[in-house]
Each structure stands twice: as C-alpha cells, then as structure tokens.
Design a protein that fits this description.
The protein is mainly alpha-helical. About 70% of the residues lie in helices and about 0% in strands. Strands 1-2 form a two-stranded antiparallel ribbon.
C-alpha cells in the first residue's frame, strides 16, 4: 500500500497543531478517547468502552435504519420478529467487524490525526493484533447469524459489504484516489440489499434503487466532513477530494451528486414500488438537503455550513428511510418487486409474497 505525499496539502495551509475542537464538532469516538485519556487507560469498564468504540456505534445506527426500512417495505408491514431481531444483530456485528478491521488498517494514520489519535490502537490501549482478531471474530459471527438464522443470501451480501469496505475502500482506494469515497463508499449501500434479502430471499429492483440512493448520498455527505477535516487528511497523505481537487470543485461535485440523488430517490414511486406518502416526504427532504448544499457553496466561510451539512445529511438519510417504512405500512397494496433480479431461497421468497 503506497502512501500519497503530504504535498497534497494546498499551498498556504500550515500544518495544524493538535487542538481540542469545539464540543459540537467532535465525533463520539473522539470524545470517548478524550475521556479515556483523562481518566487513564485500564480496567474492565474502559476495555468495554474501547470494544464499543471499535465498532463505531453511531455509524452503525444509521446502517441499521437502512436495513430495517427495506424489510418493512418488502413485507408491507412489520417483518417477522425473529427475522428482524437476527438481522439487526447480524448487521451490528458485521458492520462492527468491518469498522474494527478499518481501525487496524488505518492505525498508522490514525496516530497523526487529532480526530482519531485517541482511538484504542494509537492511544496504546489495545494492540493491533487484538483489534484485528476482534474485527474478524465479529465478521465471522455475523455471517453465521445470517446464514443459520436468517438466510444464505443475506449472509453473502453482508459479507460482501464487509470485504468491499475493508479491501476496496480502506486497503486500496482510500490512500490512492480522490474517488475513494465514491467507489469505496458503495460498501455503505449494502445494508438495504441485506435487509430486503433477509425479509424476502430476493434482490429486486426496489432494493437496488435503495442501494443507489445510499450510494449517491455518500459523496456529498462525506465530502462535507472532508472539507472540515482536510488538513488532517492532507498531513497523513490521504487524497480526499478537497485536498486534490480544491474546495470549490469538491462543492461543485457535491451539488452534482445531490442533483442526481433527488430524482433517484423518487424512482420507486414511478412504478409503484413506493407510494405517494413517501413521494411527498422524499421531495420535502430532498429540497432540504439541496438547500444545505447550496448554502455551503454560497458561504464565505465554509467550515460551519459544511459541518451543518454533514450532520443534517445523517438526519436526511435516516428520515428518508423512515419515510419509506411509513409508506410501507400505510400503502399495503403497492407493488414492491416489479423487477426480480435474483432469488436465493424460493421458500423464503414465497412466504414473503404470501405475507404481502
């Protein structure tokens, strides 16, 4: 894995001294690390906190929303309780395993960024080998949960998401291309496919639309954070878009992806995969998201608008998928699978169809 030169930092950008950022501009992981540094490492409590930190629970909470909503849409109501429970448990374990392995791979650059230097490995509270073993164990446990208690298709899709995140994004693209978050970000779009497959044993047109919604949402979401943290990425040689293309071009690309995302999010309405309730809510949410992107582009000082966009984009995706779930409950007669792409388990698929 080759590092990109730190000369990617734009001219005139001094190397920042480590500072404590404002409380409203820190991550949960960073705050947990600060607490650990202040209280001292060690003890069962701290060990448990570090295990939770490795899984990045706040990120996983959004992934679980994008897993749950497709299950509601696919079944046109509340999915089977046991299937839902095991799908959520498997989803947390799989995403947590991927995040832990990500921290193992990125341990060298994490040590040099204020946002990540207090994570368990760079802080010295956990060894790299221990974290890697933890991540692999979580991934294996998740695959077993899906394969044995849900269905094999969901297990394969969930594992594909982990492998894509670890090898395509973290191991390959993150340090070599400004397109890292575009191509590699597809890993975060696997949960809708997993949720749909868990509920139906199928991958259908609607589930692919949900995959694409998350895919096109990811660049403007993550580049908003990259604008705020570009000095951190530049000092460790990670070629995030603002460091390579510049701030204005990054914002222009964010607008392009947003303008693709908004009509794409309404795609399932055009053939009845989702109904008018979702259509109205998705339109309102899309305009809200677009407003934040435009405000960022017009701002003289982009830091606070970029941070606001980053936070609001998380809320946007959560509310968008919640709107899908609401539509799935109140529109029981809609056609949810007009274009079947793949069937893994005919028994699961037929049972889901009978439930609809």
């Amino acid at each position: 894995m080759s590092d990109v030169s730190v000369s990617l930092v734009p001219d005139g950008f001094p190397v920042p001294a480590p500072v404590t950022p404002p409380s409203d501009m820190t991550t949960a992981t960073q705050r947990a690390g600060m607490a650990a540094a202040q209280s001292g490492a060690g003890g069962v409590r701290q060990l448990l906190r570090d295990y939770v930190t490795l899984t990045k629970p706040r990120i996983i909470s959004l992934l679980l929303v994008t897993t749950w909503a497709p299950m509601v849409i696919a079944t046109r109501g509340w999915p089977n309780g046991w299937t839902l429970l095991w799908t959520m448990i498997g989803g947390y374990l799989m995403a947590g395993g991927a995040n832990a392995i990500n921290m193992y791979i990125d341990r060298d650059i994490d040590a040099h960024m204020p946002r990540t230097k207090l994570r368990p490995i760079p802080s010295g509270r956990m060894s790299p080998g221990h974290v890697l073993a933890f991540g692999i164990t979580l991934g294996a446990a998740a695959f077993a949960v899906y394969a044995l208690l849900v269905n094999p298709l969901s297990a394969y899709l969930a594992m594909a998401g982990l492998l894509y995140y670890v090898f395509v994004y973290t191991r390959w693209l993150k340090r070599t291309s400004p397109q890292n978050i575009v191509i590699g970000g597809a890993a975060g779009a696997f949960p809708p496919l997993v949720g749909w497959a868990a509920a139906t044993g199928e991958v259908s047109l609607t589930s692919v639309y949900l995959f694409l919604i998350v895919f096109f949402w990811t660049p403007p979401h993550f580049w908003a954070l990259a604008l705020v943290k570009q000095k951190d990425y530049g000092r460790v040689g990670v070629p995030m878009a603002p460091n390579v293309w510049g701030e204005r071009e990054t914002m222009r690309q964010m607008l392009i992806y947003t303008l693709i995302l908004l009509p794409l999010s309404l795609g399932p309405v055009t053939y009845g995969g989702l109904g008018p309730v979702y259509g109205v809510l998705a339109t309102a949410l899309g305009l809200w998201f677009l407003r934040d992107v435009v405000r960022l582009m017009r701002a003289a000082n982009f830091v606070q608008p970029a941070w606001t966009l980053y936070r609001n984009s998380l809320l946007y995706l959560a509310l968008l998928f919640a709107a899908m779930a609401v539509d799935g409950i109140v529109s029981p007669g809609a056609e949810v699978s007009p274009g079947l792409i793949f069937v893994q388990d005919p028994l699961v698929a037929s049972a889901a169809a009978a439930g609809r």
